[in-house]
Amino acid sequence: MYNPVDGKPDRMHIGARVLDLNNWIEIDAFYNEDIELKKKLLAERHDRVFVSVPEGDDGSREVLAEFLKYLPSRFPERWPSPISIDSNLHPLEAASLLVQEDLCLMTQQGQDWVLTAGSICFPSRWDPRDKIGKSLLGIHDPVPHYAEKIGVATQSLFDKMTVDRPMWRVNWTIMDTPDLHQPVPVRRADSITVTKDNLPDHLYFRRERQTLRKFPKTGDILFTIRTYTNTLAQAAIDFPEFRANLGKTLGGATPEMIDYKGWVSIMNDMQEWSSSAHTD
Known about the structure:
The chain has 11 helices and 7 strands. It has 280 residues and is α+β, with helices and mostly antiparallel strands. Helix 9 (242-250) packs across helix 11 (267-275). It is globular and about 55 Å long. It starts with 16 loop residues before the first strand and ends in a 5-residue tail after the last helix.
């Protein structure tokens, strides 16, 4: 599901589209497994996967209230009766245990949009504790080219969002593990050495389906992140054009982005695998 690798040289762009609210939340066969993993992470590493400041409390309550209405209406087979929640939990944490998505609440403070609450169990190598209370520019400060390429456009997207016009986009990367919970860019001690021969089965195509929805009472914006991952080999089966397109897209990546993504040691092998798509 979702293949943003189109063969065009890698370029930083927003690529946001209007979202049909019927497709706001996605549920698949891994629902129970993902929710159990969230529960485990929230129990064992709570301060590493859930962050909040008081300014996000009202918006979090509004999000939870909407989930309690939306989910039974959209997925009556899963929620045939009213949803019960743990009232002792922060409302955004309670909301996050109902869906596979990670949830980030953005609140407008002056001219900035600030992260005021987040339940982020499945980050793609970033630490939520480093982002809470920061603006869009602050959150993305480590990302090469963000400020000059899409900083203004992202700010404008948030500023112009309306309640009746939610948006969605897809982000992607290549990683050396399928683990959903990846807070830091550190290879595991048992990570296999990736070569051009084993690369398709030991590198993973990780996609994030991201949505933005503005809420009417608080004006806060909920940013959801739904993560999908599978091997490059499986991606090449699911998307026949993926293998040939990957090298073309990677060819546009700057040295700074290659380093940021952790691709330095695997870049040549990925491009060689891609270029041999029609010879194997």
